[in-house]
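Notebook, bench 3.
Goal today: get a predicted structure for Amidohydrolase-related domain-containing protein from Schizophyllum amplum so we can plan the truncation constructs. The sequence was checked against the plasmid map this morning, with no discrepancies at the termini. Length recorded as 462 residues. Pasting the sequence as submitted so the record is complete.
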Amino acid sequence: MLFRGTFVHCPTLASLDILHDYVLHVDDSGFISHIAPAEDERSAQLLSELKEGLIAIPDGEFLVPSFVDLHLHAPQYLYAGNGLDMPLMEWLDKYTYKAEERLDAEPALAQAVYTRLARRLIECGTGAALLFGTIRTDTNLILARAMRDAGLRAYVGKLSMDISSRPTYTEGSASEALAAARSFVDECADVNNETAGSLVAPVVTPRFVPTCSAALLEGLGALAKEQNVRVQSHLAEAHDQVAWVRAERGMEDIDVFDKHALLTARTVQAHCTFLDPPDLDVLVAHGTAIAHCPLSNAYFSARPFRLREALQKGLKVGLGSDVAGGYALDLMHAMRQAVVVSRMREGERLVRQAGNNEGDYPHNLAINWKEALYLATRGGTLALDMPQGAGSFVVGAPFDCQRIKLYDGASGIGAGALDFFDLEMDPAAPRVLSEDAVEKWWCLGDGRNRVGMYVQGKALTP
């Protein structure tokens, strides 16, 4: 495939690059083999050789890397938008375990939910997702195949939990849970091999410390190391959860994971709102990444995540929807909420600094919209250890992107919720994409602006 037009990406946390009139070639394997200005010699050659198959991106549109959702509970999509009125541990008992158990008992329902979820992810511009499933292996294979068939990158975790407040929704013992986890790793790999170019991978997934015995955690750490697979869980998420771990295990959440070799360079821990700066240093030392879920944190955690501090320490951080603890699947919401929460933290810092209270706060804690876009794209790919260059437009990177329409190039009339009055009023006004126009999309855009999706060079349809 050959594209010519405008490309927008955030190759680093501090940068937003708008590449005007570039030519990008995607090879037969779905990787970027060339990207350069149209006047480049090789670009001109490709335009001449492949002019019949050229996809021209018109004025008012651009390509941007697809989003990466680092934390999504697939079975909870069944009841997304409900039950956010209670503490975490109560919410799990009343809503979550029931829904997950139901999908494990009803394969047809699981197929319907997961197929619809995949479609919705494409609609939202999410090309890769790190997914929590249920405890039943067969149900998680339904999830893996649904994502594979939709053409999405999916990192699927079969839940491991030998402790539960719902007696009918648990694995019988640590040894039983470990055997099931090992079986799922093998069977998910088989799913990946059923179709050429499949993008599905298994993930070792202890739900969180309160649902896992020490024996189970130890075995999962050993399995992850032996099979070199990714790990995901919840870490220091909520006040009641942290208090439970202290009372039952006699140590902090992070120390439990560390003790059992579950903090690795291929681990993504969600939330981490109750981690202090020294704890963040521990994650840096292990290379462990964090899924920042600002919306669900507002509902279930009594403390916001230390995002700026984590970024300053060099931690790998991306964004998660945390459906259904977060009600919105679209990471556009997560980006905006991450900025809002950070600005509130910065406001609090300034008030405390003015009153000379609680010590010195030397750093601005707010992030801006460009940094949030980085977290939703490039940041997520680094957290997941995706192929080199993923989340940006560089040679060798997989071609995972979304096509965004801001306005009609001829009339200047905006798409969806966007309005560009200067372009409407003056047909002669320059149509070169500006940073202000991209920011307007970031703030106000929605699914009506998304007119295309690609993963590994393949066009996806909702």
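The first strand starts at residue 2 and ends at 9. Residues 417 and 445 are 6 Å apart (CA to CA).
Flagging this for group meeting.
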